[in-house]
Design brief:
By secondary structure, the chain is of the alpha/beta class. The protein has a single domain (2-198), classed as 3-Layer(aba) Sandwich (Rossmann fold). 43% of the residues lie in helices and 18% in strands. The protein has helices spanning 14-30, 43-50, 60-69, 87-102, 119-128, 140-146, 169-172, 179-182, 189-198; strands spanning 2-6, 35-40, 53-56, 72-78, 106-112, 134-137, 154-157. A seven-stranded parallel β-sheet has the order 3-2-1-4-5-6-7, with helices on both faces.
């Protein structure tokens, strides 16, 4: 099993680094033989700090190769699907999701706050996330905004959940797609509050 994680990683932000540490720890516990690849602004440092594989987030050829090699793309956490920061940022993160879906890979939006999105932002998310397998979002407002853009995709609000539900390795060892049914949250509610308080805008 090979996971590819797309998010705001490698920029030295404490909140995002804390979230990445939690996600990696959970995945390593559940999937001790899995390979974890992270798209990072500083891939060498990220690989060293977390003991995983890292891919340079600005290298399009490397990103395509990482997507082609993965079984499951996790896009998150944080506020990636929004264009309050910039439309360019939204194009980047949504584009990676679209690349994975077009490559026939399982793709999940994970532990995200969605929005704000203007008309063009909504159109971008609708187009790029068509075919998304599953999503977990941090609040009801995110679900209300996201759901009409990805009809047919299962979306769960995980902000108030206290237990991790990343699936066991046995549950997806022969069926990678079943991970979509089981990944629900990546940390305790208190940890998510700390992460939310320190995470930077994209």
């Amino acid at each position: 099993m090979r996971f590819l994680i797309s998010g705001y990683y490698g920029f030295g932000n404490l909140g995002d680094d804390a979230l990445l540490q939690i996600i990696i720890s959970q995945l390593k516990t559940r999937y001790p033989h899995a390979t974890i690849d992270v798209l990072s602004a500083e891939p060498e440092r990220t690989a060293h700090d977390y003991g995983i594989v890292a891919t340079p987030r600005w290298d399009q050829a490397a990103i395509r190769s990482a997507v082609a090699s993965c079984d499951l793309l996790l896009s998150g956490g944080g506020g990636l699907l929004q264009n309050a920061t910039s439309l360019k940022s939204l194009f980047y993160y949504a584009g990676i999701v679209r690349t994975a879906i077009r490559a026939g890979k399982k793709a999940m939006v994970f532990a995200q706050s969605v929005g704000p999105l203007d008309f063009l932002g909504k159109q971008t998310v609708r187009e790029c996330c068509r075919g998304l397998d599953a999503a977990t979002v941090r609040d009801a407002a995110s679900k209300a905004l996201f759901a009409p853009l990805v009809p047919g995709t299962r979306i769960e609000v995980t902000a108030d959940r206290s237990s991790s539900t990343i699936p066991s390795s046995r549950s997806i060892s022969s069926r990678p797609g079943s991970a979509m049914k089981a990944i629900r949250s990546c940390s305790s509610a208190s940890a998510r509050r700390r992460i939310r308080a320190t995470a930077s805008p994209r």
